[in-house]
Amino acid sequence: MSADLENQQPQDHTLIIENNGATQPHDPSHPVTKVHTDGDYVQFGNERYLRSELVEAFGGTLNPGLAPPPKHDFANPAPLGLSAFALTTFVLSLINCEARGVTIPNIVVGLAFFYGGAAQLLAGMFEIAVGNTFGGVALSSYGGFWGAWAAINVPSFGILAAYEGEPEQLRYALGIFLVGWFIFTFFMMLMTVKSTVAFFGVFFFLQLTFLLLAISEFKNSVPCKKAGGVLGLITAFLAWYNAYAGIANPQNSYINIKAIPLPDLQDRSK
Asked: What is the mean pLDDT of the chain?
């Protein structure tokens, strides 16, 4: 069945309007698609897909909702972006936890520039190229976050030097910086509530991480910073889990990920 789906010829999507049980195309030149559900199948415009094919491994593709298989020859860029985000977050979070007594975060600068930054940004651009708006916005934005974080810790940018002699103002500035990312992540999290547990978990724990780290700067609280580090580690492992879900398949691994969908609150309310 999956082979039949893969061999399905791409067609132009049109807006489908239901009229007394029948469907008819409306304005064929308009690139808008109406989604229909029919038991085990979901129809996007003129194309029909198995529902099981559409909901599999949301986190592995960074697609937060039902979508047809992509019509392109690119590989899935989401695992690269997720892996880059996960490793960079993992290392910084361990330092925030003061693992092995390490408190100086500069070892993360290289990762933040080239892996969490450049590689993740590149993955985000490819997500946009394959038509995944959510994945493109998420990966490109967090790639920008890591680049900005690295710049703060590089003397030649002069960011820390601008606050020389004003440690309290520096802490407040960093807190404001982190609050902005908390707000952004919170809204991204709201767009994953119809996806899977692991996918939602990445953004849920990430927004809490940003919030605790922001509070630690405002309050100059080491325990709060360590708590943020712990949540950051959870976030990193969830990101790796989703990356694995996007790469592993029966052909390359004996351990495959089965997506656990979040409850559909709309169905329960009916």
From this structure: 84
Q: pLDDT confidence of 265, banded at 50, 70, 90?
A: confident
8 Å CB contact between 88 and 111:
yes
Secondary structure (3-state) at 81: helix
CA 92 to chain centre: 18
**Phi and psi, residue 193, nearest 5°:** -70, -10
Q: At what angle do helices 197-219 and 222-247 cross, to 10 degrees?
A: 160
Question: Model-level pTM?
Answer: 0.79
- Residues constituting the chain: 270
Token duo for residue 231: 């949540």
* CA atoms of 62 and 65, how far apart (whole Å): 9
Provide long-range contacts, Cβ within 8 A and 24+ apart, for 4-11: 5/49, 5/50, 5/53, 5/69, 6/69, 8/47, 8/49, 10/47, 10/71, 11/45, 11/46, 11/47
Angle at 140 between CA 135 and CA 146, to 5 degrees: 130
Assign 43 to helix, strand or coil: strand
Q: For residues 91 and 121, is the Cβ–Cβ distance under 8 A?
A: no
CA 249 to each of CA 189, 214, 222: distance values in angstroms, whole numbers, following the listed order: 27, 39, 42
